[in-house]
Design brief:
With 482 residues, the chain is an alpha/beta fold. Helices cover 50% and strands 12% of the residues. A hairpin with a 5-residue loop joins strand 8 and strand 9. The longest helix has 36 residues. It is flat and about 70 Å long.
Length: 482
């Protein structure tokens, strides 16, 4: 028996987005041509004779085709990304970067008339990414703020109750536009009473729809799209029956691997003899090429950051000295970096010179801390006090993107209190990170920050770093500061 399909989610909306992307992509390429040949920016590049719109039009069409093909290759039109805004932006960045490299590469091998301008390609890349981001943001708002949302979410059923099930239910319930919509929970004999108690006492917990013997009826009645097993303490024949039920109804079957709480992206299946073994191997961020690429971006970004921020740092230094002439301009503090190695972190001083004497008691400084200077409060609000850390990045102590570094005392304390805290030190700390662009900075939920840090380490790619940097500029102001 095949479950009812959802043509709106699987076909209509993806095709509508594809049509919109095609129009917006052409507009981005056209704007790139205008900026290159019809604006003062064109004086920067080499003169290209006969680069009229009529002669460039076929190249624009080829560019649109290549871009749309690249977006499709990176999964932008997968229906699972309809409600995943940041994953969609990641696919756009990957596709556009691939197009830029391919376009420039093709222009070196094949001769075009008129020739493809490298400045045009760079301007077009920028215009396409910006316009697509604006268009997709508008489309996302339409999909999540209209009745379409309920028809796009995947109806999800949990099998079994344990702490992982509670955490999963809380995470999905926290976001009203999450791609998954919990319809309920199926209890197992070992957790029936606990599940019913949780459902009656927790508003975020899904209702209990029945027990395992009712599974077939419930799957049919609830039109389930996804079944997630949070417990696997069942006899093998029973597990096989559940899998068969899902296969017959084309329901996605997923499990929560309780033996592996972190680094799931590093899980690999190997065989020793004829015995399959599942374990964590290397993560993408640990590979030699990945480390070299990330370091290259860090060096280039830190040099550029130092050049651009030097005037701001000098002005801030003068204002700090004017308000607090007795103390130094720069604040130095020991933090823990990659491999649990200590390093000296640099900041612009934002507090009174004697603040360090009482600083050990503070995990983070609040907006109303009386030790803050007036200029210091402004520097923290706009994160200007962090600019000297470009020097830390250039030295190799830090990266542009990564988990924020903590002091040794707090590292030891948090390692005892928060599960999976120490693995965040497998990578270099960063000036910004996945947690920070999600508002988790300063005096916020530490456990949530650690979860975001672990997600970053598990899912690292150069595109994720680029995405975080763009979001950092978009959310430069620290909302937690005064």
């Amino acid at each position: 028996m095949r479950r009812p399909s959802n043509p709106l989610r699987d076909t209509v909306i993806p095709l509508a987005l594809l049509a919109g992307d095609t129009i917006v992509t052409f507009a981005g390429l056209l704007l790139g041509w205008i900026l290159r040949y019809e604006s003062p920016l064109g004086r920067i590049g080499i003169d290209v004779p006969d680069a009229t719109l009529a002669t460039y039009f076929p190249l624009l069409l080829v560019g649109v085709a290549l871009l749309i093909a690249a977006f499709a290759q990176f999964g932008l039109y997968d229906s699972r990304l309809l409600l995943r805004r940041y994953q969609s932006l990641n696919a756009i960045l990957k596709g556009a970067a691939f197009w830029l490299a391919a376009y420039l590469g093709i222009s070196l091998v094949l001769k075009f008339d008129p020739p493809i301008s490298r400045l045009f390609a760079i301007l077009a890349f920028t215009c396409v990414v910006v316009l697509l981001h604006l268009w997709r943001s508008f489309a996302y708002a339409v999909l999540t703020r209209t009745p379409l949302l309920s028809r796009l979410r995947r109806r999800t059923l949990l099998l079994g109750h344990n702490p992982q099930a509670s955490a999963l239910a809380a995470e999905i319930s926290r976001h009203s536009h999450h791609p998954l919509a919990l319809t309920g929970l199926i209890t197992l004999p070992s957790s029936d009473s606990d599940a019913r108690l949780a459902a009656s006492s927790d508003d975020t917990f899904p209702p209990v729809l029945g027990s395992l013997r009712d599974l077939e009826t419930i799957l049919e009645r609830e039109s389930v799209d996804v079944l997630i097993a949070t417990q696997l303490d069942l006899p093998r024949p029973e597990l096989q029956r559940i899998v068969d039920l899902c296969e017959r109804r084309y329901i996605e079957w997923k499990i929560v691997p309780g033996a592996f709480d972190i680094f799931l992206s590093g899980l690999r299946l190997q065989t020793i003899g004829r015995v399959p073994i599942l374990g964590v191997e290397s993560l993408a961020i640990d590979r030699l090429f990945s480390r070299a690429l990330k370091r290259t971006v860090d060096v280039a970004g830190s040099i550029l950051g130092l050049l651009l921020s030097t005037p701001v740092i000098l002005l801030a230094a003068a204002l700090i000295k004017r308000e607090s002439p007795d103390g130094p301009v720069f604040f130095r503090q020991t933090r823990i970096g990659a491999g649990h190695r200590p390093f000296t972190l640099y900041k612009l001083r934002s507090m009174r010179p004697d603040a360090a004497a009482t600083d050990a008691a503070h995990q983070s400084t609040t907006a109303r801390d009386p030790r803050l200077l007036r200029i210091g409060r402004f520097l923290r609000r706009w994160n200007i006090d962090e600019l000297p850390q470009f020097w830390n990045v250039l030295r190799g102590d830090m990266s542009l993107v990564g988990p924020r570094p903590e002091r040794p005392y707090h590292v030891d304390q948090l390692a005892r209190e928060i599960p999976h805290y120490l693995p965040r030190h497998l990578v270099k700390p960063g000036m910004t990170g996945w947690a920070q662009v999600h508002g988790l900075r300063g005096d916020t939920d530490l456990a949530a920050r650690i979860q975001h840090d672990i997600y970053y380490i598990e899912n690292w790619s150069i595109w994720l770093d680029l995405q975080i940097l763009l979001l950092t500029f978009a959310r430069w102001r620290d909302p937690g500061s005064a």
